Amino acid sequence: MKLLLSLLERLTCQHFFTVLPTSAPQMAVAELVKGVPWIFSGESVHLKCSVPGNVSAEWRYRWFRGGEQLQESEYFVLWKARPQQSGKYYCQGLRTTWISTQHTLHSLPIEIEVDGGWAILQAPPLPMLVGETMTLTCRVRDNPRLTEVILYKDGVELQRQPGPELRVTNLTLQHHGSYWCRASWDGRRETNSVISEAAPVSIIEVLTEPVLEIVPNDPLIHEDRMLLVCQVQLNAREPVPHIHYYFYQDGLSLGPASSQDRVTVLRDSGQYWCKASVPTLGLKRLSEPVPYGRVTGEHSEHMRNQKRIVVRQSPFRMRHNADQWHQFS
């Protein structure tokens, strides 16, 4: 009888545990709540760890730098930091239930740079967009009253200002590079001057140049048709505007503007390209032409000339009859 009860108990437990729902592990979030990522030695930063959507849950938090576990707490304070404490900091949430201890995925890292020098050029940590204005700040240890700040890019002087803030307006891709600053101030008997370490600045286009992909054998469409895909990236601030897509063959439009980045067309030889337009930003870009089937060199040169004037075509003209253009769905 005892053996029978033991087997029944074991089977019941196994059945119970197999029906428990499982979910993908969550990711912890590490954030900088006080201070800046690039600090002077002797300064402090405050970090916080959390698990989104679990305010009432009894989570504990572990902090790491690289592969080293630091401490277990919700907040982590780098107090009077030293240069040796520079690195990537991240956290993990964990909680103990009646079944087991659950662990979240590690958070994305926050990189803290502790500078032992006298000057720091604070630059945007994320890429800036073409056309925007960038503000750079030349910080000097102990905050003396500066008399002159010089901004350099890739070894070339860009501007001089009496204060620590430097602004670069109407950014272009040519502004991508390494920046540093030289700050000067008057001491008791002499003028002091210090130079910061170089800070990288990344500039990206709002709308990249489209790339047209021709997929002649897509299993989801009819065998006498092929798929055109217009690949483009929109790097815009919130709210993100909509992209309008246009497709062309041999200088003629294959249909009206669409919010879809792909269309299906009859399989036919010719030169194809696409256009991406963002009307709210006044932007439009054309892809390079892509040949399909038998296209002669003379035909290719003619199509390159057609590409230059295709933007001015309005209203659109169908390449074939109205049944030929189909949006991909």
Written description of the protein model:
This protein folds into three domains: 26-115, Immunoglobulins (Immunoglobulin-like), CATH 2.60.40.10; 119-204, Immunoglobulins (Immunoglobulin-like); 211-327, Immunoglobulins (Immunoglobulin-like), CATH 2.60.40.10. Mean pLDDT is 83; it is low at 1-5, 11-21 and 306-329. The protein starts with a helix and ends with a strand. The chain has two helices and 28 strands. A hairpin with a 2-residue loop joins strand 4 and strand 5 (68-72). The strands form seven sheets. Strands 2, 4, 5, 7, 8 and 9 form a six-stranded mixed beta sheet that branches. Strands 13, 14, 16, 17 and 18 form a five-stranded antiparallel beta sheet that branches. Strands 22, 23, 25, 26 and 27 form a five-stranded antiparallel beta sheet that branches. It is mostly beta strands and 329 residues long.
Summarize the structure.
Helix content is 9%, strand content 43%.
Feature tags:
disordered N terminus; mainly beta; 28 strands; 329 residues; Immunoglobulin-like; transmembrane signaling receptor activity; disordered C terminus; Ig_Fc_receptor
Tell me the layout of helices and strands.
Elements: H1 2-18, E1 29-34, E2 38-40, E3 45-50, E4 60-65, E5 68-72, E6 75-78, E7 87-96, E8 101-103, E9 110-115, E10 119-122, E11 128-129, E12 134-140, E13 148-153, E14 156-161, E15 165-168, E16 177-186, E17 191-195, E18 199-201, E19 203-204, E20 211-215, E21 225-231, E22 244-249, E23 252-253, E24 262-266, E25 270-278, E26 283-286, E27 290-292, H2 297-309, E28 326-327
Parallel strand pairs: 2-9, 11-19
Antiparallel strand pairs: 1-3, 3-6, 4-5, 4-7, 7-8, 7-9, 10-12, 12-15, 13-14, 13-16, 16-17, 16-18, 20-21, 21-24, 22-23, 22-25, 24-28, 25-26, 25-27
